[in-house]
User: Fold this.
Amino acid sequence: MDNIIGIVPGGGKATRIHGFFKEMMPIGINKYDKSKFVVSSEQIVDSMIQSDANSVHFILSSIKSFIVEYYGRERIADGKINFNYDTEDIERVGMPYTIDSIYSQARMADYVMMGMPDTVIEPVETFSNVMKLLRERKADLALGLFRTDSRNKGGYIEFDEQTKKVIRHIDKTNTRSFPSSADNAWAVACWNRNFTEFMHEFLAGRKSPRSEELIFGDVIDKAIDRDDLKVVADYAGTFYWDITEPEKYFDLLRRTSPVERVQTDRVADIVAPDGQSVLAAPSARTQKDNEAKIFLSHKTADKPLVERYYAALKQLGFHPWLDEHDMPAGSNVPRWLLDGFKQSCAAVFFITENFKDEQYLATELDYAIQQKLVRGPKFSIIALRFSPNAVVPDLLAPYLYKDIHNDLVGFYELLRALPLE
Assistant:
């Protein structure tokens, strides 16, 4: 049996995600436990293991140890993930050096699968498809391609449709040469021992490795130029999305793709309504004390809906207020409600057909408006309407409300409306 390993290079310091971490961006929910979420790197790891990887090497920067804790706590791919840490020197010189940092393990493998933790790919068989291409074409490096356009650029590949041999690669960072008509991007790669040795020797032979950052595309280009290496490519999946920037990430959450999605055990179908529940992310962004608490106003009948938002906000580092979680037994309810509003930066009203401007909900509406008048832009009233038949209370009518068709969009609108400094 072939020894196959997966490599997930997860270095970097999240500069483009503004404090969040690309390896842990929420993209779906666990099919079997809807209280748990699926994050970007988890999807890649799962795809590798289901494509017969014996183990996966997750390479992280030292500031991302919480990812190790998350995988251990959730028992994801238990026993098959090895965590390795980059040094700052290796991070600085680029991804190929990150991959080569585990050369002692990679050189023992017959084949290597490599995928980035900041991309979403489907179906789960993608790596199997690329491995099949690698073997059938007796190649040294195989690139898995996806259809794309100007919204979602990646490394563009020109290849022979018959032989699958790669003719040219143009990275998206090459703004002068990158064709406006580019309609594909490579997103995953598989290679054999020959390519592992080639990359190691190429990196070791560079005269000034620290003078500029090297990208994996540079290694692809060198391999294409070598007569003794065979580089092939073909379309390997139905869906690819780059989530390295906030706008692209939220485009993914809002996106309704015409592509048929394939749902697997741990990969959510983002299009299907039951796959659009609110997700969580690690507490990589620490809120200030004055913006961490959020009051969640709802009808008791809607508790399951609100619990999802509560769990997601907690994972993000906020402190949402929810009666059964935060109100001690025997509390003076009106006083507890008032304290809750005073300590919160926002009040979120979950408007469904059950929501009525009466009893405690009426009190909560009054308190929210009072806080808005006193604190102005430092307090937000956020109204999310989950049914077109739900009636927005008159007191909320002057404030903007959003019609929510699925929970991911609702969560996005909630976060966007918070008065964060």
